[in-house]
Design a protein that fits this description.
The chain is of the alpha/beta class. It is built from 21 helices and 29 strands. Strand 27 and strand 28 form a beta hairpin. The chain binds 5'-O-(acetylsulfamoyl)adenosine.
């Protein structure tokens, strides 16, 4: 079991103090120092963030209001003028960092590139001019569907520079999923590549873009920019498609950053929830810049000597906040790797660490578990002594994986930061600060200063020590999402009304369950809604169900997660068929392929089980809890008295 069970957590008594040598040079050096910061922020959150905004970022003009809170809508530093691309690039050019490596890139077939701050700035300015020449304007939304190459970061920063919002779509999503996002965002341009390398094969990104835009279903998209990466030859639609390198070389490198309002849209990033289509999570400029800057600085303890590597894809929030914006805003060296761990190259991550002398390494529990399985001879054969800090994100880390990471990768000398956060939160929320907070394997420890997190019941009352409850945040923070793109009402319903506001007190509900132990440590227990976490990727059960039901053979579908040792969870689908369809292996294959086509390979069900009927309540709701039990081979537990037809359950049980 990869999810921490109550059992394993209650017996987790190991505590690891920050190594003295680490604490001495860290920004936050002791638990007392963390506590003081936390208390100061709690006593006066707006003053806390205002001081940091003044000290840490460049503003063209100062704000008039630090926080304008009309629950659940927040504005941070309203009236302030800022540009995140300026903070990530221009301001470093007047310092010695001008010729420091900003971005180190390791390509999949063995190529590599390093861009200094001056070089990255130049590329971003040129590409910003390319966008302008094509008519992309401040306020436009631009789709980015790219492999992990420097141009992905350059494209994001160029959009930010001219005040266009980006919406990055992970390259593993299908043409259908891309189309949905481009339509919802009313994108006016798409930036892509001919292809990308993924596990020894080429992903035909440009073909997918062509499919997404076919038949004029996304009329807002006027231009497509294509990076030449894999050179396999692609169709170029005249008048619409342009090669990146051709336009880039003609463009001027003079493009001053547009002074943006702090609350102007920076990006929209789609994420799955328990209902409906994926939501466009809206992040704005000033607050997000400050929040990712501060969390990068204190959680990763970023120093000028660091080579920092986050293994996420830029298509996820982790890539946005902790490959691109947070590290560059701090003037750090950020490493980007195009490859993914795979059986054919089990040492690839450790080779990268050795080659570049990576000092801070941030990855996901699912990757750690895959490495455990591949064998410790691979990391042991490399020199990993440059590492000084490790991090994890994406799902709860089981204590065994934590201990392996600590021992085999960290050589027992590196602190581990277990960072709990979400697309919606913009940056780290519950995490240790590595020089200050003693860690317990499997606990994300304490909230970041300024974050008033709590574990509550449905009425919003704090629950007792070691009691499970809903994880909430009691006060707005600068990095929080502002709304669901185009749907304020959905924003309110999804995040702010699950726990009903009492006396105007709005609590942000994260969708996770948690518990605090006798030392106040937070233990995240996983999602309490219909969201499944497969290898650290968020998927809504309803999204997968809709994909299945759109197949002509399917009458009804219910999707649940089943615990999996490597992936955290696996997708199991229960399906009832239309009259004439035959439940055979070919149909299983066809349905899995259909889901891949509708959403992407990340949503491929591990199992499809056919059944005559699904277990429902008398009011017609599918009882997923029962299906979850069945999927994981457990006895059906808890109350089944609301079940409409008990024989359905017996039949399902027999069939499994
Ligand atoms: C950053 C990211 C968010 C969901 C979140 C949790 C789970 C993420 C941790 C974690 C336990 C962690 N954004 N989650 N980090 N659970 N410990 N350190 O993953 O929007 O894609 O997913 O991921 O359930 O709600 S996300």
């Amino acid at each position: 079991m990869s999810q921490p069970t109550i059992e394993s957590i209650l017996h987790e008594g190991r505590v690891f103090n920050p190594p003295a040598a680490f604490s001495q040079q860290a920004y936050i050096k002791s638990l007392e120092e963390y506590q003081q910061l936390f208390d100061r922020a709690k006593a006066n959150p707006t003053k806390f963030w205002e001081d940091l905004a003044t000290k840490e970022l460049h503003w063209f003009e100062k704000w008039h209001t630090v926080l304008d809170w009309q629950p659940p809508f927040a504005k941070w530093f309203d009236g302030g003028k800022i540009n995140i691309s300026y903070n990530c690039l221009d301001r470093h050019l007047t310092t010695w960092r001008k010729n420091k490596a900003a971005l180190i890139w390791e390509g999949e077939p063995g190529d590599s590139r390093t861009l200094t701050y001056a070089q990255l700035h130049r590329e971003v300015c040129q590409f910003a001019n390319v966008l302008k020449h094509l008519g992309v304007q401040k306020g436009d939304v631009v789709g980015i569907y790219m492999p992990m190459i420097p141009e992905a970061a350059i494209a994001m920063l160029a959009c930010a520079r001219i005040g266009a919002a980006h919406t990055v779509v992970f390259g593993g999503f299908s043409a259908e999923a891309l189309r949905d996002r481009l339509i919802d965002g009313k994108a006016t341009a798409v930036i892509t590549a001919d292809g990308g390398w993924r596990k020894d094969a080429i992903v035909p990104l440009k073909d997918q873009v062509d499919k997404a835009l076919a038949d004029g279903v996304v009329p807002t998209v006027k231009n497509v920019l294509v990076v030449e990466r894999t050179k396999q030859g692609v169709h170029m639609e005249s008048g619409r498609d342009h090669w990146w390198h051709e336009l880039q070389k003609q463009a001027s490198a003079d493009c001053p950053a547009e002074p943006m309002n702090s609350e102007d849209l920076l990006f929209v990033l789609y994420t799955s929830g328990s209902t409906g289509k994926p939501k466009g999570v809206v992040h704005t400029t000033g607050g997000y810049n400050l929040y990712t800057h501060m969390t990068t600085k204190w959680v990763f303890d970023i120093q000028d000597t660091d080579v920092y590597w986050c293994t996420a894809d830029v298509g996820w929030i982790t890539g946005h906040s902790y490959i691109v914006y947070g590290p560059l805003s701090n003037g750090a060296t950020t490493l980007m790797y195009e490859g993914a761990p795979r059986a054919s190259n089990p040492g690839c991550f450790w080779d990268v660490i050795e080659k570049y002398g990576v000092t801070v390494f941030y990855t996901a529990p699912t990757a750690i578990r895959a490495f455990i399985k591949m064998g410790e001879e691979h990391p042991n054969a490399r020199d990993l002594s440059s590492l000084r800090l490790l991090g994890t994100v994406g799902e709860p880390i089981n204590p065994e994986a934590w201990m392996w990471y600590h021992r085999v990768i960290g050589g027992e000398r590196c602190p581990i930061v277990d960072t709990w956060w979400q697309t919606e939160t913009g940056g780290h929320m519950i995490t240790s600060l590595p020089g200050a907070v003693p860690t317990k394997p499997g606990s994300a420890t304490f909230p970041f200063p300024g974050i008033l997190a709590d574990v509550v019941d449905l009425d919003g009352n704090s629950v007792g020590t070691n009691e499970g409850g809903y994880l909430v945040v009691r006060h707005p923070w600068p990095g929080m999402m502002r709304t669901v793109f185009g749907d304020d009402d959905r924003f309110r319903r999804t995040y702010w009304e699950h726990i009903a506001p009492v006396d105007g007190q709005y609590l942000y509900f994260a969708g996770d369950g948690a518990r605090r132990d006798e030392d106040g440590y937070f233990w995240i227990m996983g999602r309490v809604d219909d969201v499944i976490n497969v290898s650290g990727h968020r998927l809504g059960t309803m999204e997968i169900e809709s994909a299945l039901v759109s197949h002509p053979a399917v009458a009804e579908a219910a999707v649940v997660g089943k615990p999996d040792e490597l992936k955290g969870e696996e997708i199991v689908a229960f399906v009832t068929l239309e009259g004439t369809a035959a439940p055979n292996d070919d149909l299983v294959k066809a349905l899995k392929q259909h889901v891949v086509g509708e959403i992407g390979a990340l949503a491929r069900p591990a199992e499809i089980r056919f059944s005559d009927a699904l277990p429902k309540t008398r009011s017609g709701k599918i009882m997923r809890r029962l299906l979850r039990n069945l999927a994981s081979g457990q006895e059906v537990s808890g109350d089944t008295s609301t079940l409409e037809d008990r024989s359905v359950l017996d039949k399902l049980r027999e069939g499994s």
